[in-house]
């Protein structure tokens, strides 16, 4: 048992073989690599199989409403920007219900890491197609002959376009690489997105471990992550080959850098000098 295991009797309720096991192990390893101070680390989850991750890891944690991971993480970070804030959720949570929040968090460049457990289905509710499902995918809810008729959201391409300043993809079947992507994302100053390819062994019969093993390819060492055009071109590749690694990275001011209220440090560390709380309370009563 490591310092990062939850000191509770919780046993993960994920299905045996679920890709979430690789993700939680990689996250704990990333915490250890970075020697994160657990008292200064906050994990914010949405709702779904993926969002149970906070129950099994030892740090401060908030379980939010479905799709509301990023606004809550934003609030935590702006109240105390000294904290390491990590948001985690699934493709349904983040790209469906939470899509609007993803757009605005990216363009603002909040200093938050966002790890998306992308299993291409809504697993917790028994396998409906999600915003990242393959076209033509058959499920109990999208049966033959048509299957899924919607085009999938490309998380990497969208994150680059919207203004996230670190964008990577990793595969839960390669935990060393996933650990490295997570550590780089947490270390990055700005909105850091990692699209994590995660098989759902119970409800996704298409994107299996075997399917990914044949396709994932690490981006070549000659790729310059500051080359936006090349990053976008790589993001467009999905089929017989699926690139994984760091696509895009830039240094630009975070949202908090632009706020004069935070120049003096986190709000929680600033004195309430001159604030007349009692009259304010009377006014609000
Ligand atoms: Fe994992 Fe899918 Fe089972 Fe959920 S339903 S725990 S995503 S295998």
UniProtKB/TrEMBL annotation:
Domain Thiamine pyrophosphate enzyme TPP-binding span(s) in chain numbering: 47-196
Keywords for this protein: Iron, Iron-sulfur, Magnesium, Metal-binding, Oxidoreductase, Pyruvate, Thiamine pyrophosphate
Chain ranges of the Pyruvate ferredoxin oxidoreductase beta subunit C-terminal domain: 200-263
Entry's Gene Ontology molecular function annotations: iron-sulfur cluster binding; metal ion binding; oxidoreductase activity, acting on the aldehyde or oxo group of donors, iron-sulfur protein as acceptor; thiamine pyrophosphate binding
One Pfam family cited in the UniProt record for this chain: TPP_enzyme_C
Cofactor: [4Fe-4S] cluster; thiamine diphosphate; Mg(2+)
Coiled-coil regions listed: none
InterPro entries registered for this protein in UniProt: 2-oxoacid:Fd_oxidoreductase, OFOB, PFO_beta_C, THDP-binding, TPP_enzyme_TPP-bd
Biological process per Gene Ontology, one example term: cellular respiration
Matches recorded under SUPFAM superfamilies: Thiamin diphosphate-binding fold (THDP-binding)
Protein name: 2-oxoacid:acceptor oxidoreductase, beta subunit, pyruvate/2-ketoisovalerate family
Organism listed in the record: Sporomusa termitida
């Amino acid at each position: 048992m490591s310092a990062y295991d939850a000191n509770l009797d919780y046993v993960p309720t994920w299905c045996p073989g679920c890709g979430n096991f690789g993700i939680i192990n990689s996250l704990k390893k990333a915490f250890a690599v970075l020697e994160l101070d657990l008292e200064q680390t906050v994990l914010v989850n949405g709702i779904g199989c993926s969002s149970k991750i906070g129950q099994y890891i030892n740090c401060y944690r908030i379980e939010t409403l479905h799709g509301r991971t990023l606004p809550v993480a934003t609030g935590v970070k702006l109240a105390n920007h000294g904290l390491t804030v990590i948001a985690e959720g699934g493709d349904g949570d983040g790209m469906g219900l939470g899509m609007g929040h993803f757009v605005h968090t990216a363009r603002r460049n909040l200093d938050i890491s966002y790890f998306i457990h992308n299993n291409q289905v809504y697993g917790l509710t028994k396998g409906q197609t999600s915003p990242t499902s393959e076209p033509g995918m058959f499920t109990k809810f999208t049966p033959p002959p048509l299957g899924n008729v919607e085009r999938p959201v490309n998380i990497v391409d969208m994150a680059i376009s919207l203004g996230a300043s670190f964008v990577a993809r990793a595969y839960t079947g390669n935990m060393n690489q996933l650990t490295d992507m997570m550590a780089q994302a947490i270390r990055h100053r700005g909105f850091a997105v990692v699209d994590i390819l995660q098989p759902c062994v119970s409800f996704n019969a298409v994107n299996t471990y075997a399917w990914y093993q044949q396709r994932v390819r690490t981006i070549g060492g000659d790729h310059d992550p500051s080359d936006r055009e090349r990053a976008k071109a790589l993001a467009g590749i999905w089929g017989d080959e699926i690139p994984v690694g760091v696509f895009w990275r830039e240094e630009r001011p975070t949202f908090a850098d632009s706020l004069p209220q935070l120049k003096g440090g986190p709000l929680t560390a600033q004195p309430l000098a001159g604030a007349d709380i009692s009259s304010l309370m009377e006014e609000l009563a």
